[in-house]
Amino acid sequence: MYYLSAPDRGSTNPGLASVAVGKRCGPPSNTLGSALELDPETGEVDAAGLEAAEVDPAEVDAAEVDAAESALRVQLIDHIRALEELKGSICAAQARAAAVFDESSRRSQSRAGVKRGQLGRGVAAQIALARRESPNKGARLLGLARILSTEMPHTLRALSRGAISEWRATILVRETACLRLVDRQKVDELVAGDQERLAQLGDRKLIAAIKSVSYGLDPHSVVNRAAKAASDRFVSCRPAPDTMAYVTALLPVAQGVGVMAALMRTADRARAAGDPRSKGQVMADTFVELLTGQERAEDLRVEVQLIMTDRTLLHGVLPPVVSRHSGTGDSDADHSGDSPRTVRGRPGGSAQSFVPDGAEPAVLTGYGIVPAQWARDLIRRDGSSAAPQRLRPSRRAPRTEVWLRRLYAAPDTGRLTAMDSRARLVPDGLARLIAARDQICRTPWCGAPIRHYDHIKPFREGGPTSAENIQGLCEACNQAKEAPGWTARCEEAPGAPGAPGALADNNGTGRHSVTITTPTGHIYRSTAPPLPGTTGAVS
């Protein structure tokens, strides 16, 4: 069996908790039991012990096998619980470290003459990079660290001892945000002070316990919080699997119930009239039709930016590319039996590709990779599968308005052809080029949509408005890089310093690459995602 130990959890030392993992006394006495050991570092069963014990399976009693495996299962559950508690201890140590880092950074910025309202700028972004999270998640983690370290000692202690997870610590902080400091600390003491009881509470029971105590301490704050929540209403869209999307609306409860009731009534009427669609399909189609003003959900009249190669778009229209190689290395001879297609003139210069002709996936801006056939259907028809058409034979063929905009790529690297401008503001054509190249915010681990087109070398320092010196960033990342101590520079291909189109990453793929250096000197590299039809798409 295994256990773990950690130092005093009440300490404010930001260092990581030390952990000891070892065996519990009294291992199985039989030969088979002693041969089944659990590696404390990997959590895997050491099968080598069976060979060392020279156990003959024919001589092993079934009851002995059951007993050994039963003991092993006990070990595994103990191991899983110990690791779960260890995760809490590590999260608490990260929170302490983040709080101390925030305080130190603010003092440093203050000494440097940063205005009071700008203190702490860029701190959350550095924490996000260190934890390989998005800047938005980094800001939430920093806020959690501040509150735990300064206002909720009982919750921090419970997290340190592994009684709760980081998420449940977040719930405690979130649900007490509307309270005065003295009331928040009282809730912290009453709810998180009893760690044995706290460890038994699930998410919903924990929220109920917090609300019960909070309402008793300050009912007006709880009521005001509910009133303020209506001002936080919003609508968002995020990708879902299989070329679908989630459109989410945060609404006051009465409005949300009203929306669902209206959609359900429409679906019930359609079903009663013999519509072969399911109730959920009718509700989804009605939702789109009401919001867009379209007669039918399938009739697309908005711009959907889809990036695909000409080979994918025109598959079945143009003749396939034929591979020609000789058995002696002469490129003019024919290998008619070769199944992979030639990629002569394709990015990367590789001789063959395992992707069939016309099957390179496309990129849907704001979503990501989509199958080639789905992309062709979107352009040629309606982007949906054939199944919905069979369900609705009486509905006429969908109408989709299609515009094609050509983007030219360098044949040797696959990078989009550059555009330049003498203006500081990025022109629309260049912005579309950057959006096609970068797809989402270029900051590592940030998947937010592009909102700003940023000069990597600032315009005030002579940075040009060109594809080489522009990157797509979200608003938060663009603001973070303006904090003192942040620098960014383009990577240049070896042997061609400063030459146009000479940007490349360290792997030599030719994709646009930017090196980010934080105020602490940590370095992160951001490389543009591969475009359809390039060798980087499968690297």
Task: Describe, in plain words, how this protein is organized in 3D.
Belongs to the Rv1128c/1148c/1588c/1702c/1945/3466 family. Residues 429-479 form the HNH nuclease domain. This is HNH endonuclease. Residues 320-357, 516-539 are annotated as: Disordered. With 539 residues, the protein is α+β, with helices and mostly antiparallel strands. The chain is 40% helix and 10% strand. The chain has helices spanning 31-35, 48-53, 62-111, 123-130, 135-150, 153-160, 166-175, 181-192, 195-198, 203-217, 219-229, 253-272, 279-292, 310-313, 372-380, 386-391, 428-438, 475-480; strands spanning 2-3, 22-23, 37-38, 45-46, 234-240, 244-250, 306-307, 362-364, 368-370, 420-421, 452-455, 465-466, 470-473, 487-490, 513-517, 523-527. A hairpin with a 3-residue loop joins strand 8 and strand 9 (368-370). It is globular.
Short description:
With about 550 residues, the chain is α+β, with helices and mostly antiparallel strands. It is about 40% helix and about 10% strand.
Strand order of the largest sheet: 7-8-9
Q: What characterizes the major β-sheet?
A: 3 strands, antiparallel
The helix tally amounts to 18
Q: Could you tell me the radius of gyration in angstroms?
A: 30 Å
Instruction: Name the beta content range.
Output: 5-15%
* Percent range of helical residues: 25-40%
Structural class: alpha+beta
Mean pLDDT: 76
Q: Rough shape?
A: globular
**Span between termini:** 42 Å
| Low-confidence residue ranges | 1-35, 47-53, 323-352, 382-394, 494-507
Kindly state the number of beta strands.
16
